[in-house]
Amino acid sequence: MKARGLIIAAHGRQYLVEFSDGSTRLCFPRGKKSELACGDHVEVAATADGQGVIEKTGERSSLLYRSNEFRQKLIAANVSQILIVVATEPSFSDTLVTRCLVAADSQDIRPLIVLNKCDLTDRLPAARESLASYRSLGYAVIELSARDGADTLRPHLKGETSVLVGQSGMGKSTLLNALVPGANAATREISEALDTGKHTTTHARLYHLDAETHLIDSPGLQEFGLHHLDLHTLEAAFPEFGPHLGRCRFRDCHHDREPDCALRGALARGEIDPRRFECYQMLRTEVA
User: DSSP letter at 280?
Assistant: First the structure.
């Protein structure tokens, strides 16, 4: 007998699938290759041992993933919003934030930058300065302290399926536990179901805040490869480039040393942030 369910956790080739009655079942994909992610809607056939085989994956509205030259790693499927968590301490990577924004843009996922640990007031001005270029481009930035102000985020989560991403040490777990009081207990249960041990991180875990609001937690990121993108998608993900694209002297301009490059002209006039342009050049080399 087949049933439709939702992947709420993953570890390797094991997936915990939740069904409409609230029950869960440990499931495995058919074949050797697995391209499933937390948040995927799947069709499952029950097996004699009380587990299940994933027969079919539903159509996705989005898929957030990262890749390098060797492999890709799926993070979450069918999300409408990405919460990029940074903090006043420790310092965060501009490059990683930009990579997350580019990945979100490529999948039409709404980004929201969350500045955590704002109770560390002596570090707050420097963190705000680091985020100033993103604010100026129209990216939404929410400031909070996860320990006592996580509720500031709730109105932005309502009705969305959001995924939490960020470097280790940004306070992502503290924020999750404040938003989902039972997250620790749920994590232990999921780990036991997947037989991974309570200290082993699954690829991603989905929690229900209410019937219409869901939050997917992902492990801390130190890198976010974008080898799967093409140059057009990359350029389109930098909104400040928009007025200048197509205005270079050469149609195949690499925006490097070519004469009359519109992007480099805008950079010289202060219309493009140097850090953002440097990150773009790095990404262009990566995807070219």
Answer: H
